[in-house]
Amino acid sequence: MSTPFDFPTCIAKWTGLENTAYHIQRLSDSYTNNTVRVLFKTPTDLFNKLPGGGGEGGRTLDHDPASVILKHAPPYLATDPSQPLSVARQTTEATALALLAGHLTLPCGVVQDPHKVGDIKRILERFPMIQIPKVIHHDKEDNVLWLSDLGGNTGPVARVLVSDGGGKGWSAERVEGVRNVGKQLGSFLAEFFDATRGLSESVVAEMESLSKEYTGGAWDGSVDMLKRILEENGIGDAEELGEVVRRDFEETKLTGRAGGDLGSEHKEANQSEDECLGMVDFWPGSVIVDPDVSVCGLVDWEYFGRSRESSELGMFVAHVHIVGALPTSSEEGSRRLQDFASGILRGYGGKKAALSTRGPTDIGFQRKFFVSYARELINETDMYKAELDEASSKHLIETGVSLLRHVEGAGLSGARVEVGDGWLRDVISCWFVENT
Predict the structure, then answer these.
(1) 58: buried, middle or exposed (CB in 10 Å: 19+, 13-18, 0-12)?
(2) Which of 211, 269, 352, 397 could connect to 359 by a Cys-Cys bridge, CB 3.0–4.6 Å?
C-alpha cells in the first residue's frame, strides 16, 4: 500500500528543509488539484536544490523566491475523490507553460519550430500586465508541479471584485482600472488564440493526445448533465436542447478530424478562424488579480487543448453571470465583475478587428458563444448549488433554455441570435457595433 501524499515530505525530499523553515498556506479555490503556497521564512535557493537547474527549460527564476506554488495532482478530482481523473493533466499544464515561456523543447519531448517558438512569449511581453506562472520543477514521481508564485495578495478575480475592496473601497479610478485590465486580457487572448493556429502540427497533436486521456468522455457527460437538469426542472424540450449542445460538440470534434486541423501546415488551406488551442476550462477561477487590479494572472492550464475562441469566452462570461446571481453578491460587486468581463469582450473584439480576422461579428461565432454560455449557465447550477437559492437557480436555467431555443431557431432561419435585456445584452453589445 502506497504512503499517502503530504506536502512537507515532498518539500523535504527536494530541498532538505524541515517544516519549521516554511509555512504552508492551502489555497481553498483549488478544484481539480490540491494546491498550496509555500512561504519560506528566508528566500530559498531552489535553483541549486531542484533538478534541471530550477526549470525544465533552464533557469526560470532570477532570484531566490520567498514563496512558491505547489500543485499536487491526485488520480481523481481533488474536490471529489469518487471521480477518477488522469494525472496526465499535469504533463499538459507543464507543456502548456513551457510553450508560453518559449521553450524550444517541450516537457513531452516535442521540439518546436525554431522560427515559431517565441511567438507566444513575444505576445506576453507586449502585455506585461498579464502574468503566467513558470514551471520551476515537475516532480513526476509524486505528481507535483513547483510553480512561481504570482503574488501572495492575488486572488480569483470574482472574489476580489465582489469584495469590499480590501478596506480601500472602490473609487472611480479603481473601477476604471478593472475595465482596463479586462480590456488588456481580452486583447491578449485575441492575439494568443491567433498565435496557437500557427503552432507546428506536432505540438498540436501532442497537446490533443495528452488531453484526450482525461477529457474523452467529458462532452457526453456535459450533455447528459444538461438534459438531466432540464428534465428535473420540467423543461419539456430537454432532449431537443441537449441535442443543440451535442451538435455543437460534434462540430468541434468533426472539425478536428477533417477539414480544420490546427497547426501551421494547415493554417492557410482549411482552418477555422474560431478554432484554437485554449485553456478549455476558462472561468473566473482561472484569472487572478491583486487588490489594486494592476496584475492579472492566468493559472490552471491542465485542460489546455483544442478549443474555440467563442466557447472559451462564452464559458467565462456565463460564470460571471452566475456569480452576479448569487444571493451573497452585492449589486456593486456584480457590476464590477461585469465591467471586467465587458472589458475582456471589448478588448477581444477590438483586437480581432485590428487583426482583420473574423470573430464576434461572425454569426457562426455568436451561435457557438451562446451555446457555450447557455450550457454553463445550466450545468453550473450544480456546481454552485450550495450558494444559489431556488429563485436564482431557476433564473439561470431559464436564461440558458431561452438562449438555446434562440440558437436553435437562428440555426434554422439563418438569423442572428438575439439576446435578452439587461446585462446579457449590455456586455456583448460592442460586438454588433463597427470599430468598437
Answers:
(1) exposed
(2) 352
**CB of 12 within 8 A of CB of 38?**
no
What is the Cα–Cα distance from 210 to 98, expressed in whole angstroms? 15
Domain limit, last residue, from 148, 166, 201: 148
Domain with 33, as residue range(s), is: 7-148
Flag residues of the chain having pLDDT under 70. 1-2, 29, 52-62, 165-168, 213-217, 253-273, 410-436
Contact, 82 vs 76, CB < 8 A? yes
Q: Chain centroid to CA 31: how far?
A: 13
Residues 130 and 177 in one domain: no
pLDDT in tens, 72-129: 999 998 988 988 888 989 999 999 999 999 888 888 778 888 877 788 889 999 999 9
Domain count for the chain = 2
* Residue 38 within a domain: yes
- Euclidean distance between CA atoms 262 and 197, whole angstroms: 6
Cα three-residue angle 33-100-184, rounded to 5 degrees: 95
Cβ 431 vs Cβ 332: under 8 Å? no
- Asked if the structure places residue 1 within a domain, the reply is no
Per the listing, cell 455543437 goes with: 248
Position of cell 495532482? 73
Q: Are residues 13 and 71 in the same domain?
A: yes
Of 40, 206, 47, the C-alpha closest to 112 is 206
Whether 235 and 383 map to the same domain: the answer is yes
Please, what is the angle between helix 172-196 and helix 331-354, to 10°? 40
Read off the amino acid at residue 276.
C
- CATH code for the domain of 85: 3.30.200.20
* pLDDT tens-place string over residues 32-87: 899 999 999 998 888 777 775 444 444 456 678 899 999 999 999 898 898 888 89
| Angle 341-404-430 from CA coordinates, rounded to 5° | 30
pLDDT for position 38: 96
Instruction: Provide φ and ψ at 220, rounded to 5°.
Output: -60, -40
pTM: 0.90
